[in-house]
Amino acid sequence: MSGWRCTGLRWPHHGGPELGWARSDRSGWGRVSVLAYGKELGFRAVGERHCVGARDNPCPVGAVVPARSTGARCEECARLDRAHSVAADTIADDPRPYRVYLAWFGPGLVKVGITGEAREAARLREQGAVVFSWLGRGPLMAARRTEELLRTALGVPDRIPYARKRAVRGELPGVAERAAEIEGLYRRAAALEGAGWPEALERLPFEAVDHAGVFGLAGAGPAARVVTGLADGGVVAGRLVAAAGPDLHLETATDGIVVLDTRLVTGWDLVGADARAGTSVPTVAVGGGGVQDGLF
Q: Taking a C-beta distance cutoff of 8 angstroms, is the pair 247, 260 a contact?
């Protein structure tokens, strides 16, 4: 009988996080599990971890992939997926509108990025942005040039290591302070109009969108440890208290709050486990490394 293989954490346009699933026999039929804060969650990994394919297509050979890889793709599928991404700059003639955003993850942790306008704020939730504001909208190449302008003129990065995001997530300042920091960056960016700002990019008004409530971070408390990888028979279990980006924050009976980067779960066949069983997979202290990045 075919089991269920996890395809990763999803953030729909509206609502909370969802886990995606596909049939282990690669028959293509899938489903989603809506996750709710305060509910118990437990599962056990079975067998080997397999490639999740590319662009909604299964891996043609069902390749086995490393347990600690956050990409969950074989070399060929990773190449195909990357070739069609916005980050690859291989679709310069893309006619769809794009938006430039400023994202805040914690004190001093801000970045600039772009996303397709049709995706709305999903990209920001996928990265775990606690607060963000749109900066401008326009064609892809104009958005790209603006992103590069902010990187060079203001020293704003286009990616932040995920370990740094996790390290500050449990002790965030208040709503007003969060908004004030990203508003200051917005004003610095807006002042660059006329100094290399692409004419094709329309500047959008400042509006701080705060995701702390959507993520369940208020009152969740700081995380203690981070899962570094699954293995056959390994169990992850606890009460879901928060989620941000690809991370699930699980309150466990023995280790406090443990962060599970769901990019490490994709590609595994999972079966239910007692949510009180605790976690039997390797973990490290938050900020101690051990989980590869790759989603910025």
A: yes
Beta pairing partners, 115: 99
Res 42: pLDDT: 93
pLDDT of residue 185: 95
Element (H, E) at 189: helix 175-190
Average pLDDT over residues 157-186: 93
Helices 175-190 and 140-154 meet at what angle, rounded to 10? Answer: 100
Q: What tokens were used for 107?
A: 């004190």
Structure tokens at 263: 């990019």
Classified as helix, coil or strand, 87 is helix
Contact 289, 228 (CB under 8 A): no
Closest CA to 159 of 133, 128, 138: 128
CA distances to 68, 229, 260 from 263, in Å: 9, 10, 9
Of 251, 68, 70, whose CA–CA distance to 170 is shortest? 251
Asked if the model's pLDDT at residue 295 lies above 60, the reply is: no
What tokens does 132 get? 């963000």
Q: Which two tokens stand for residue 249?
A: 């924050």
